[in-house]
Amino acid sequence: MKNPIFFPLALVTLAVACVNVAEAQPTHHPRTPVGVRSVQWVVHRSPSYTGATCVGTLGCEAPRSVARCAPGGAAPLAVAQAIGQRLRLTGQTVAVRGHLDAGGTVCTEARCHNHTCCNRCGMRMSLTATADGSVLGLWLGAFTDSIFACDGDDSGFCCGTVMSSGDVVARGVLRVAPGDGGGLLIESPTLCTAD
């Protein structure tokens, strides 16, 4: 005889899983419908490349937005503090405040003719120190995580998360970045705007 509690329990488990998946989906900018491309979302746009297939001409879909931080809670660490305390903090959940940046650009190096954007490029997003102008930074997410990456060509990049002009707080587990010579990353981070 089958357990009569199993079926309702399975439905509740399925419903919770569906809600969790829905909440994990990236949110889009409210003024730009999903699937619509706009040049306003192109990062590091180069006006010298104007081909019809260039990212700078086609534009980008709206990236995931970043909500404001909830008031209260413990003050986040500065980027330099998190890096300075890496031996103690590695493997722990941290909250770090800094500037959202994109770097580590990697591109193919084909010779493009007539501004056609024949190269493919990619960048990773990181949290960098702001006040002291240092180059200290923490990578965000796994290197395969498209939410914290920017892809494009010679003309510009489309990023998975909106590049905020102010400070953000990243909350996640501090880890040593694999294959990065001792660099650090915040694993599976959640972001909020601090300003």
Secondary-structure-derived class: alpha+beta
Amount of helix = 10-25%
Poorly predicted ranges (pLDDT <50, ≥5 residues)?
Answer: 1-33
Mass-distribution shape: globular
What's the average pLDDT? 79
Radius of gyration equals 20 Å
Q: How many structural domains are formed by the residues?
A: 1
* Beta-strand residue fraction: 25-35%
Count of discrete alpha- or pi-helical segments spanning 4 or more residues: 4
Largest beta sheet, briefly?
5 strands, mixed, barrel
Number of strands: 10
Describe this structure in words.
By secondary structure, the chain is of the alpha+beta class. The chain has one domain (29-193). Helices cover 17% and strands 32% of the residues. It is built from four helices and ten strands; from the N terminus they run αβαββααβββββββ. The chain has a five-stranded mixed β-barrel. The N and C termini lie far apart (60 Å). The model is unreliable at 1-33 (pLDDT under 50).
Q: What structural keywords apply?
A:
195 residues; alpha+beta; 10 strands; 17% helix; disordered N terminus
Quick structural gist:
This protein is of the alpha+beta class. It has four helices and ten strands, in the order αβαββααβββββββ.
Secondary structure layout:
Blueprint: H1 6-24, E1 37-38, H2 55-58, E2 60-61, E3 77-78, H3 79-84, H4 86-89, E4 93-107, E5 120-128, E6 137-140, E7 149-153, E8 156-159, E9 167-176, E10 184-193
Parallel strand pairs: 3-4, 6-10
Antiparallel strand pairs: 1-2, 4-5, 4-9, 5-6, 5-7, 7-8, 9-10
